[in-house]
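Regression test case RT-17, inverse folding.

Input:
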């Protein structure tokens, strides 16, 4: 058993050394690596990512929907060659969906088999709470990773409640999880944890204290132009510039849901599909449903359309 433990420790050390080689050595290197994977971050976000990687700390990204918070986890997994484990949060989510639950059907089958073979007298309660009866959900999957540290994305944490946030504290601070029937399970390879929030409610300070924090804003016009150029290179540069001005102007309106970068890219692609050569009034009216997803926002934008289109004239 001691030799096995030694081998396991050696494998863990080798894995950590290998992972360290893959980490960026500077903020500039982080910016370049993100850009190479088609994510155009500003320097503040690149700094937060760099520090999270080097310090081994969870990174909490807050911001408006559509600003690329979720995408950063996907890009990091691709860049670092790590497995992405995603937990999509929602209202009412509990541990059974997020962390683990016991396979009650298998436990019941075990009891029935013991009864049929006359072994029920020898069965202990603990026999029904072995790891073979455990159903692993995203959080436990990330903690139990055996070969390399995964990227754990806890997406839209603000959709959950404070009780769930409290459960996360142990994982965020010590990369471990307590299961009453089994004890504490610690990560052999601590995951890179990315948490996102659209700030529909304020997260608890205890969560924030355990994370590095970065607010992710909509890109400025120059960066948004560069993003669309990368994602939709077939779009004419002059038309792309007008799209950027239009989207930036829309965000200046009092909208319920402002268009994100994903909507900008979709609108640019729609223009290519339509073989558009300019942003006409009729074309934009027909395409507002690509940019805006709330009817009241579409009505407001339609009323402001002459001014919006006027702002895009070069």
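Golden output:
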């Amino acid at each position: 058993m001691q030799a096995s433990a030694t081998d396991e420790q050696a494998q863990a050390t080798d894995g950590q050394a290998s992972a360290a080689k893959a980490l960026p050595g500077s903020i500039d290197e982080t910016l370049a690596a993100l850009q190479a994977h088609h994510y155009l971050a500003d320097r503040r976000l690149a700094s937060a990512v760099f520090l999270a990687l080097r310090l081994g700390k969870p990174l909490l990204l807050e911001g408006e929907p559509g600003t690329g918070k979720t995408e950063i986890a996907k890009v990091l997994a691709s860049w670092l060659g790590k497995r992405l484990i995603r937990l999509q949060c929602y209202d009412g989510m509990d541990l059974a969906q997020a962390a683990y639950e016991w396979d009650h059907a298998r436990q019941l089958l075990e009891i029935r088999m013991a009864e049929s073979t006359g072994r029920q007298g020898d069965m202990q309660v603990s026999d029904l709470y072995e790891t073979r009866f455990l159903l692993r959900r995203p959080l436990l999957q990330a903690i139990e990773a055996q070969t390399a540290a995964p990227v754990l994305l806890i997406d839209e944490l603000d959709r959950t409640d404070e009780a769930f946030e409290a459960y996360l504290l142990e994982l965020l601070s010590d990369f471990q999880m307590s299961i009453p029937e089994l004890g504490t399970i610690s990560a052999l390879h601590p995951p890179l944890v990315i948490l996102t929030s659209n700030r529909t409610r304020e997260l608890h300070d205890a969560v924030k204290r355990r994370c590095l924090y970065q607010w992710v804003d909509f890109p400025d016009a120059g960066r948004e132009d560069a993003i669309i150029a990368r994602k939709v290179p077939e779009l004419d540069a002059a038309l792309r510039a007008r799209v950027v001005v239009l989207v930036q102007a829309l965000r200046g309106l009092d909208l319920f849901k402002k268009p994100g970068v994903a909507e900008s890219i979709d609108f640019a692609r729609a223009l290519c599909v339509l073989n558009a050569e300019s942003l006409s009034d009729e074309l934009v009216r027909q395409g507002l449903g690509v940019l805006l997803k709330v009817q009241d926002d579409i009505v407001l934008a339609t009323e402001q359309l002459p001014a919006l289109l006027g702002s895009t004239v070069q």
